[in-house]
UniProtKB/TrEMBL annotation:
GO terms for biological process: folic acid-containing compound biosynthetic process; tetrahydrofolate interconversion. GO terms for cellular component: mitochondrion. Its EC number is 6.3.3.2. Signal peptide: none annotated. Keywords: ATP-binding, Ligase, Magnesium, Metal-binding, Nucleotide-binding. This is 5-formyltetrahydrofolate cyclo-ligase. Gene3D superfamilies: NagB/RpiA/CoA transferase-like. It catalyses: (6S)-5-formyl-5,6,7,8-tetrahydrofolate + ATP = (6R)-5,10-methenyltetrahydrofolate + ADP + phosphate.
Length: 279
């Protein structure tokens, strides 16, 4: 991964696509009351799966159970999102983006990784955030002011995704899934800079491709090896996507969130988020 220009003190934030990525919140977290989409499934695995106590067959059965639960939850959340009232959706899109724009951690961040929302997939809108970031660009290697934006580009079907730097919305073209993403080279034929990353806490579930988990794990390891500050992993979430704790089944490969932004406000989860967000 090319990481030119990333320094350990630079403030980085990653905004995660939360189309059907419900998150569980520890009960100790203040702020908004989590909405329970459904009752917890009868089979709720522990958060840290202790594979060491399982033999190979038990491990396989356990993982199959977890993936089955994830599929069922994805289907339920997808349906709830499709049925969501369009006025409520638009109200929540605005509230979530305002909450991000008003946050000191967003304002002070210098490198942001954000998904390009796809309304057909009912993802929380990011258009206002993207415009704000692109209107206030960092110039050259100056990381003291302005922001750099990195957006996802799927590289192959083996869950590989990169986060590439763009400086203008016109840098994006629709891919085979009808999601906008950047070409690997810019209009001058130069390779785009890539980079980004995260930390531990809130559970999440994605679309099942493993793209985010693979990417985040790799970046976390890189940041650790280079002694960089771990970036904040922040999920944008409609109210109905926020689950009670332990509802989401996880495997050891699932990367946890630092914080959620719901229409009602910012919900810090990890210690890193509590420190950086200082509510
Ligand atoms: N805006 C956005 N960009 C993103 C992602 C994302 O979830 N949202 N990704 C995150 O991985 C990566 C692309 N992966 C994707 C994986 C599945 C689908 C998708 O359309 N899934 C359908 C179900 C398809 C099926 O029937 O299996 C869906 O979720 O409804 C889209 C993107 C990178 N870019
Ligand atoms: N029964 C299974 N055993 C082992 N691996 C599986 C099984 N079912 C699915 N997988 C794989 O696990 C990977 C990650 O799935 P997971 O549910 O963690 O994705 P996700 O967190 O929803 O995706 P993303 O990280 O893109 O948001 C996928 O590549 C999937 O193919």
């Amino acid at each position: 991964m090319r990481t030119a220009g990333l320094t350990r003190k630079v403030k980085q934030v990653v905004l995660v696509a939360l189309m059907n990525q419900p998150c569980s919140i520890p009960r100790t977290v203040p702020a908004t009351k989590p909405l329970l989409l459904s009752r917890p499934p009868s089979y709720a695995p522990p958060s840290a799966v202790t594979f060491t106590t399982m033999n190979k067959n038990e491990e396989k059965d356990h993982l199959d159970g977890v993936f089955k639960q994830k599929r069922a939850l994805r289907t339920r959340v997808r349906k709830a999102l499709k049925a969501m009232d369009s006025e409520l959706r638009s109200h929540e899109d605005n509230a979530i983006q305002s909450n991000v724009l008003e946050s000191p951690w967003f304002q002070s961040s210098r490198r942001l990784c954000a998904y390009i929302s796809c309304s057909a997939l009912r993802e929380v809108d990011t258009s206002k955030l993207l415009s704000e970031i692109l209107q206030n660009p960092a110039t050259g290697d100056n990381t003291q002011s302005g922001k750099r934006l990195y957006v996802p580009r799927v590289e192959d079907k083996n869950s590989h995704m990169r986060m590439l730097n763009i400086s203008c919305i016109d840098d994006l073209v629709a891919n085979s899934m009808n999601i906008l993403e950047p070409a690997p080279v810019d209009s001058f034929g130069n390779e785009r800079e890539d980079g980004l990353a995260f930390d531990k806490s809130g559970r999440r579930i994605g679309r099942g491709g493993g793209y985010y988990d693979t990417f985040l794990k790799k970046y976390q390891e890189l940041a650790k090896a280079r002694d960089w500050t771990q970036p904040l992993l922040v999920a944008l979430s409609y109210s109905l996507q926020i689950m009670d704790e332990e509802v989401i089944a996880v495997t050891p490969n699932d990367v946890s969130l630092d914080a959620l932004v719901s229409p009602a406000g910012v919900i810090p989860i990890s210690q890193a988020a509590l420190e950086r967000m200082k509510l």
